[in-house]
Amino acid sequence: MSKIIHRSLRGTLPFAVSAQGVYLTDREGKQYIDGSGGAAVSCLGHGHPDVLAAMHAQIDKVAYAHTSFFTTDVAEELADTLIAKAPPGIGHVYFVSGGSEAIEAALKMARQYYVETGEPERSIFIARRQSYHGNTLGALAVGGNEWRRKQFAPILIDVGRVSPCYEYRDRRDGETPEQYSQRLGDELEGEIQRIGPRKIIAFIAEPVVGATLGAVTATPGYFKRVRQICDRYGILFIADEVMCGMGRTGSLHAVDQEGVRPDLMAIAKGLGGGYQPIGAVLASSRIVEAFRKGTGMFQHGHTYIGHATACAAALAVQKVFARDKLIEQVQSLGAYLEKRLHETFINSPYVGDLRGRGLFRGVELVADRATKKPFDPALKLHAKVKSEAMNQGLLCYPMGGTIDGVTGDHVLLAPPFICTEAQIDEIVDKLARAIETGT
Ligand code: PLP
User: Fold this and answer.
1) Which atom from ligand 1 is nearest to the alpha carbon of 136?
2) For the chain, first and last CA: distance in Å?
3) What is the complex's ipTM, to 2 decimals?
4) Looking at domain 16-47+325-438, which CATH architecture does it have?
5) Name one GO molecular function term (predicted).
6) Which fold, 52-323?
7) What are the structural domain ranges in the chain?
């Protein structure tokens, strides 16, 4: 029996022994097409020669140098590259090892900003229900996935809560998408008033919701309203782009399509493309300037921040994006994926909603399309679809169960940007078979 504490302590996992392009192979020689890039990570697929070469070269030079002693060329160049493409106002980057660490760092930066600028009474974050921001304690506290939080709730900080922007289930009959955005803005403003505006540090949200709802995009004007409200009360806006960022939705950052400027932005997953564990916080210049004028530091730090080999991998990913025009490819391939999903599921009695942007797509499964009635959670449909998909040789990312009283099953697709249309066909066909068998 394995000595690893795997995600599930029941059952066994196949052993991955090789991975190339969009396929992984297990020890028995079975091939799986990577329809979800793991968990929206492997944007360049597997075994990309440029990334491997960059990592090898860096390991030969300096694999790791502790950031209390040194900086490195690759970390500086990666920072310059990311800042050149960041939303206006973002001027600095803080490298970490993954998404949860990026969220922890962003929360602490936001808090320190108000301590440095003379508003230490600000101590509360507002976040959305049915969100996921990571599994470390701060990230779990702001996250709104009750299933993940439940047993740890007594040791989590208190957070203000508002509804997610989940049009399929929550927009009312007769309400336009714009009116729905307005109503959600009113709800946020109500929560700010309830807590007390001068007690609030920041509002945090995923621009496109990933791991709890499956590629749920916001309605028009929603994030603009959020930005206005944050500005009105002097509250920071933290965009969690750990899953939806780094080109996944057809622009480098998902907020680029919302026309808003976050104060802090967490990125990870596609940043290193799975070649190395790396995440980052992109921070507005005003925050870092406040630190510089105040204590002269960000009071945080982990052993592996700015890891040279991880930075080399992420820099190579960025160079491949630019050289091979991969963000444009996400747009065209994303449109193809959307078309194929619509064609395939148009008459499916169990597919209630198809949504998402670029190569970040969600399929919501329902027992009744007309009433949107979800499947009984006891059926664990998402788990069945996942194992059926694996039987078919497809890796996809189903999720479900009861989250904040809302029950639903969703499948997330996040294929590598280097897919061909034929591979997209293979993913969609296998998913259709898995859903058919699973339901
Ligand atoms: N934030 C979002 C939006 C995520 O989807 C995730 C992971 O799925 C995280 C944060 C946490 O990232 P990690 O698993 O790398 O710690």
Assistant:
1) 16
2) 32
3) 0.99
4) Alpha-Beta Complex (3.90)
5) diaminobutyrate-2-oxoglutarate transaminase activity
6) Aspartate Aminotransferase; domain 2 (3.40.640)
7) 16-47+325-438, 52-323
